[in-house]
Design brief:
Layout lengths: L1 E2 L2 E3 L11 E8 L2 E8 L13 H28 L9 E5 L2 E7 L16 H20 L2 E2 L8 E5 L5 E5 L6 E2 L19 H7 L9 H16 L12 H6 L15 H8 L10 H5 L20 E2 L5
Parallel strand pairs: 5-11
Antiparallel strand pairs: 1-2, 2-3, 3-4, 4-6, 5-6, 7-10, 8-9
Helix pairs in contact: 2-4
Protein backbone atom coordinates (compact mmCIF):
# COMPACT_ATOMS: atom_id res chain seq x y z
CA UNK A 1 0.00 0.00 0.00
CA UNK A 2 1.23 3.48 -0.92
CA UNK A 3 0.44 6.36 1.46
CA UNK A 4 1.70 9.66 0.06
CA UNK A 5 4.82 8.01 -1.32
CA UNK A 6 5.46 5.77 1.70
CA UNK A 7 5.30 2.09 0.71
CA UNK A 8 4.01 0.13 3.70
CA UNK A 9 5.86 -3.03 4.69
CA UNK A 10 2.57 -4.64 5.75
CA UNK A 11 -0.77 -3.90 7.37
CA UNK A 12 -0.93 -1.12 9.95
CA UNK A 13 -1.69 -2.46 13.42
CA UNK A 14 -3.07 -1.14 16.69
CA UNK A 15 -2.04 -1.91 20.27
CA UNK A 16 -4.12 -1.95 23.46
CA UNK A 17 -7.01 0.06 22.09
CA UNK A 18 -4.77 2.98 21.13
CA UNK A 19 -6.06 5.96 19.15
CA UNK A 20 -3.79 5.16 16.21
CA UNK A 21 -2.51 2.42 13.92
CA UNK A 22 1.16 2.03 13.16
CA UNK A 23 3.65 0.20 11.04
CA UNK A 24 6.79 0.59 8.95
CA UNK A 25 7.33 1.78 5.40
CA UNK A 26 10.10 2.72 3.02
CA UNK A 27 10.61 5.65 0.68
CA UNK A 28 13.63 6.64 -1.43
CA UNK A 29 15.70 3.87 0.09
CA UNK A 30 15.00 4.86 3.73
CA UNK A 31 12.85 3.07 6.29
CA UNK A 32 10.20 4.97 8.26
CA UNK A 33 7.85 4.49 11.17
CA UNK A 34 4.30 5.45 10.12
CA UNK A 35 1.46 6.32 12.49
CA UNK A 36 -2.14 6.75 11.34
CA UNK A 37 -4.30 8.83 13.69
CA UNK A 38 -7.79 7.38 14.05
CA UNK A 39 -9.26 10.70 15.16
CA UNK A 40 -10.24 13.18 13.86
CA UNK A 41 -11.62 11.79 10.60
CA UNK A 42 -11.70 14.26 7.72
CA UNK A 43 -14.99 14.05 5.75
CA UNK A 44 -14.26 13.38 2.08
CA UNK A 45 -16.62 13.86 -0.86
CA UNK A 46 -17.81 10.26 -0.40
CA UNK A 47 -18.66 10.67 3.32
CA UNK A 48 -22.45 10.17 3.70
CA UNK A 49 -23.22 13.38 5.61
CA UNK A 50 -25.00 16.62 4.81
CA UNK A 51 -22.60 19.14 3.29
CA UNK A 52 -23.04 21.68 6.11
CA UNK A 53 -22.14 18.99 8.67
CA UNK A 54 -19.15 17.88 6.62
CA UNK A 55 -17.87 21.44 6.36
CA UNK A 56 -18.17 21.92 10.12
CA UNK A 57 -16.19 18.74 10.69
CA UNK A 58 -13.63 19.76 8.07
CA UNK A 59 -13.05 23.07 9.83
CA UNK A 60 -12.47 21.18 13.09
CA UNK A 61 -9.97 18.96 11.29
CA UNK A 62 -8.18 21.96 9.78
CA UNK A 63 -7.88 23.53 13.23
CA UNK A 64 -6.48 20.25 14.57
CA UNK A 65 -4.00 20.03 11.68
CA UNK A 66 -2.70 23.58 12.23
CA UNK A 67 -2.17 22.89 15.91
CA UNK A 68 -0.44 19.54 15.31
CA UNK A 69 1.83 20.98 12.61
CA UNK A 70 2.95 23.71 15.04
CA UNK A 71 3.44 21.13 17.79
CA UNK A 72 5.62 18.81 15.70
CA UNK A 73 7.61 21.70 14.23
CA UNK A 74 8.30 22.99 17.76
CA UNK A 75 9.45 19.54 18.90
CA UNK A 76 11.87 19.26 15.99
CA UNK A 77 13.24 22.75 16.54
CA UNK A 78 13.95 22.21 20.25
CA UNK A 79 15.38 18.70 19.94
CA UNK A 80 19.09 18.01 20.13
CA UNK A 81 18.41 14.45 18.97
CA UNK A 82 16.94 12.98 22.14
CA UNK A 83 13.41 13.74 20.90
CA UNK A 84 12.78 11.54 17.87
CA UNK A 85 12.56 13.62 14.69
CA UNK A 86 9.15 13.95 13.03
CA UNK A 87 9.67 13.68 9.28
CA UNK A 88 6.20 14.63 8.03
CA UNK A 89 2.67 15.29 9.19
CA UNK A 90 0.01 15.16 6.50
CA UNK A 91 -3.52 14.17 5.60
CA UNK A 92 -4.10 11.34 3.14
CA UNK A 93 -7.74 10.69 2.35
CA UNK A 94 -9.75 10.89 5.56
CA UNK A 95 -6.88 10.29 8.03
CA UNK A 96 -3.85 12.17 9.31
CA UNK A 97 -0.43 10.55 9.37
CA UNK A 98 2.91 11.11 11.10
CA UNK A 99 6.15 9.66 9.78
CA UNK A 100 9.53 9.38 11.49
CA UNK A 101 12.81 7.75 10.48
CA UNK A 102 12.82 4.18 11.80
CA UNK A 103 15.17 3.87 14.79
CA UNK A 104 17.03 0.63 15.40
CA UNK A 105 16.73 0.10 19.14
CA UNK A 106 17.31 -2.48 21.83
CA UNK A 107 14.30 -4.36 23.27
CA UNK A 108 12.75 -2.60 26.29
CA UNK A 109 13.72 -5.62 28.40
CA UNK A 110 17.36 -4.53 28.18
CA UNK A 111 16.63 -1.86 30.80
CA UNK A 112 16.03 -4.66 33.28
CA UNK A 113 18.99 -6.82 32.27
CA UNK A 114 22.60 -7.13 33.37
CA UNK A 115 23.66 -5.98 29.90
CA UNK A 116 22.47 -2.50 30.88
CA UNK A 117 25.51 -1.45 32.92
CA UNK A 118 25.58 1.11 35.77
CA UNK A 119 27.34 3.55 33.43
CA UNK A 120 24.63 3.01 30.80
CA UNK A 121 21.91 3.61 33.39
CA UNK A 122 23.53 6.82 34.61
CA UNK A 123 24.11 8.12 31.07
CA UNK A 124 20.56 7.34 29.87
CA UNK A 125 19.02 8.94 32.98
CA UNK A 126 21.05 12.10 32.46
CA UNK A 127 20.19 12.22 28.75
CA UNK A 128 16.47 11.98 29.56
CA UNK A 129 16.71 14.95 31.91
CA UNK A 130 18.53 17.08 29.35
CA UNK A 131 16.25 16.05 26.48
CA UNK A 132 13.06 16.70 28.43
CA UNK A 133 14.45 20.01 29.68
CA UNK A 134 14.70 21.12 26.05
CA UNK A 135 11.08 20.10 25.44
CA UNK A 136 10.02 22.09 28.50
CA UNK A 137 12.08 25.09 27.42
CA UNK A 138 9.91 25.22 24.28
CA UNK A 139 6.77 25.43 26.44
CA UNK A 140 5.69 21.83 25.84
CA UNK A 141 4.51 18.99 28.10
CA UNK A 142 4.97 15.37 26.96
CA UNK A 143 2.05 14.09 29.01
CA UNK A 144 2.73 10.35 28.67
CA UNK A 145 6.27 9.66 29.81
CA UNK A 146 6.96 5.98 30.51
CA UNK A 147 9.74 3.49 29.84
CA UNK A 148 8.02 2.12 26.74
CA UNK A 149 8.30 5.61 25.23
CA UNK A 150 12.09 5.54 25.53
CA UNK A 151 14.17 3.82 22.84
CA UNK A 152 17.66 2.61 23.75
CA UNK A 153 20.06 3.02 20.86
CA UNK A 154 23.82 2.99 20.25
CA UNK A 155 25.58 6.30 19.58
CA UNK A 156 28.34 6.65 16.94
CA UNK A 157 30.79 6.61 19.85
CA UNK A 158 29.54 3.17 20.91
CA UNK A 159 27.62 4.22 24.04
CA UNK A 160 24.09 3.20 24.90
CA UNK A 161 21.91 6.29 24.60
CA UNK A 162 18.20 7.14 24.63
CA UNK A 163 15.56 8.72 22.43
CA UNK A 164 12.09 9.83 23.50
CA UNK A 165 9.10 8.97 21.32
CA UNK A 166 5.28 9.24 21.15
CA UNK A 167 4.23 12.89 21.17
CA UNK A 168 0.54 12.41 20.37
CA UNK A 169 -0.43 13.32 23.95
CA UNK A 170 2.00 16.25 24.02
CA UNK A 171 0.51 19.71 24.57
CA UNK A 172 1.56 23.31 25.03
CA UNK A 173 1.75 24.57 28.62
CA UNK A 174 -1.19 26.94 28.09
CA UNK A 175 -3.38 24.05 26.85
CA UNK A 176 -3.93 22.22 30.13
CA UNK A 177 -6.83 19.76 29.72
CA UNK A 178 -10.05 20.56 31.54
CA UNK A 179 -12.14 18.22 33.69
CA UNK A 180 -14.06 15.85 31.45
CA UNK A 181 -11.61 16.05 28.55
CA UNK A 182 -9.93 12.85 27.41
CA UNK A 183 -6.52 12.24 29.01
CA UNK A 184 -4.31 9.29 28.16
CA UNK A 185 -1.60 8.50 30.67
CA UNK A 186 -0.06 5.29 31.97
CA UNK A 187 -1.25 4.81 35.57
CA UNK A 188 2.12 3.40 36.59
CA UNK A 189 3.82 6.73 35.88
CA UNK A 190 0.91 9.10 36.43
CA UNK A 191 1.36 12.24 38.53
CA UNK A 192 -1.15 12.69 41.40
CA UNK A 193 -2.59 15.89 39.93
CA UNK A 194 -3.34 14.14 36.62
CA UNK A 195 -5.58 11.68 38.47
CA UNK A 196 -7.24 14.52 40.38
CA UNK A 197 -8.11 16.18 37.06
CA UNK A 198 -9.38 12.89 35.62
CA UNK A 199 -11.77 12.54 38.56
CA UNK A 200 -13.28 15.98 37.93
CA UNK A 201 -11.26 18.23 40.21
CA UNK A 202 -10.24 21.69 39.01
CA UNK A 203 -6.55 21.10 38.37
CA UNK A 204 -4.17 22.77 35.96
CA UNK A 205 -1.59 20.37 34.56
CA UNK A 206 1.90 21.80 34.27
CA UNK A 207 5.34 20.55 33.28
CA UNK A 208 5.54 19.15 36.80
CA UNK A 209 3.58 16.09 35.63
CA UNK A 210 6.52 15.18 33.37
CA UNK A 211 8.95 15.76 36.24
CA UNK A 212 7.06 13.28 38.46
CA UNK A 213 6.82 10.66 35.70
CA UNK A 214 10.49 11.10 34.80
CA UNK A 215 11.48 10.77 38.45
CA UNK A 216 9.74 7.38 38.62
CA UNK A 217 11.34 6.32 35.34
CA UNK A 218 14.85 7.28 36.43
CA UNK A 219 14.41 5.54 39.79
CA UNK A 220 13.37 2.41 37.88
CA UNK A 221 16.26 2.73 35.42
CA UNK A 222 18.88 3.19 38.15
CA UNK A 223 17.58 0.71 40.75
CA UNK A 224 15.44 -1.71 38.74
CA UNK A 225 12.25 -0.81 40.59
CA UNK A 226 9.90 1.98 41.64
CA UNK A 227 10.27 3.69 45.02
CA UNK A 228 8.67 1.62 47.76
CA UNK A 229 5.19 2.52 48.97
CA UNK A 230 2.41 0.98 51.05
CA UNK A 231 1.41 -2.37 49.57
CA UNK A 232 -2.31 -1.63 49.69
CA UNK A 233 -1.91 0.71 46.71
CA UNK A 234 -1.45 -0.41 43.11
CA UNK A 235 0.29 2.70 41.81
CA UNK A 236 2.61 5.42 43.17
CA UNK A 237 0.08 8.22 42.55
CA UNK A 238 -2.50 6.38 44.70
CA UNK A 239 -0.07 6.17 47.59
CA UNK A 240 0.85 9.85 47.28
CA UNK A 241 -2.80 10.96 47.16
CA UNK A 242 -3.53 8.92 50.29
CA UNK A 243 -0.67 10.54 52.18
CA UNK A 244 1.58 7.46 52.05
CA UNK A 245 5.17 8.55 51.26
CA UNK A 246 7.25 7.17 48.42
CA UNK A 247 10.34 5.59 49.94
CA UNK A 248 13.19 6.44 47.56
CA UNK A 249 16.06 3.93 47.60
CA UNK A 250 18.71 6.62 48.11
CA UNK A 251 21.47 4.17 49.02
CA UNK A 252 21.11 2.50 45.62
CA UNK A 253 21.17 5.78 43.71
CA UNK A 254 24.42 7.33 42.44
CA UNK A 255 25.18 10.99 42.98
CA UNK A 256 23.59 13.38 42.20
CA UNK A 257 20.40 11.35 41.70
CA UNK A 258 20.23 10.48 45.40
CA UNK A 259 19.48 14.14 46.15
CA UNK A 260 17.74 15.01 42.86
CA UNK A 261 15.01 12.35 42.75
CA UNK A 262 13.42 13.34 46.08
CA UNK A 263 12.89 16.80 44.59
CA UNK A 264 11.35 15.35 41.42
CA UNK A 265 8.90 13.16 43.35
CA UNK A 266 7.42 15.75 45.70
CA UNK A 267 3.68 15.16 46.06
CA UNK A 268 2.53 18.69 45.17
CA UNK A 269 3.48 19.95 41.69
CA UNK A 270 4.51 23.43 42.82
CA UNK A 271 7.12 21.87 45.12
CA UNK A 272 8.88 19.86 42.40
CA UNK A 273 12.14 20.94 40.85
CA UNK A 274 12.06 22.08 37.23
CA UNK A 275 14.17 20.16 34.73
CA UNK A 276 16.15 23.30 33.96
CA UNK A 277 17.09 23.39 37.65
CA UNK A 278 17.71 19.64 37.61
CA UNK A 279 20.40 20.12 34.94
CA UNK A 280 22.38 22.18 37.45
CA UNK A 281 22.93 19.03 39.55
CA UNK A 282 25.48 17.93 36.95
CA UNK A 283 28.91 19.55 36.79
CA UNK A 284 28.86 19.59 32.97
CA UNK A 285 25.50 21.06 32.02
CA UNK A 286 25.98 20.62 28.27
CA UNK A 287 24.01 17.82 26.60
CA UNK A 288 26.09 14.67 26.21
CA UNK A 289 27.99 14.76 22.94
CA UNK A 290 28.07 11.01 22.56
CA UNK A 291 24.46 11.04 21.41
CA UNK A 292 25.57 12.25 17.99
CA UNK A 293 21.96 12.62 16.78
CA UNK A 294 22.25 15.92 14.87
CA UNK A 295 21.95 16.74 11.20
CA UNK A 296 18.37 15.63 10.56
CA UNK A 297 16.47 17.81 8.12
CA UNK A 298 13.85 20.29 9.23
CA UNK A 299 10.24 19.25 9.64
CA UNK A 300 7.79 20.30 6.98
CA UNK A 301 4.09 19.65 6.47
CA UNK A 302 2.28 19.48 3.18
CA UNK A 303 0.10 22.41 4.16
CA UNK A 304 -2.05 22.21 1.06
CA UNK A 305 -3.01 18.66 1.97
CA UNK A 306 -4.07 19.30 5.56
Amino acid sequence: MNINGYILDGELRTTNGANCRWGFAHRDGRRYFVKELLSPVYPTAETPLEERIKERKREGCRKFARRQALLYRTINECSDGTLVHIEEFFRYGSHYYITMPAVESYPEEMMRSAAFSPDDRYRVSRILIFGMARLHSAGLIHGDLKLSNVLLTRSPGGNVTARIIDFEDCFFSEESPKPGESIRADQRYMAPETFRLMTGEQERLTQAIDVFSLGLMIHEILTGRFPKYDGEYDYPFEAVLSGSPLMILKKRLPEPFDSLLPRMLVSEPEGRISLEEAKMYFSDIRPMEERGQTGEKDFFSRAGNL
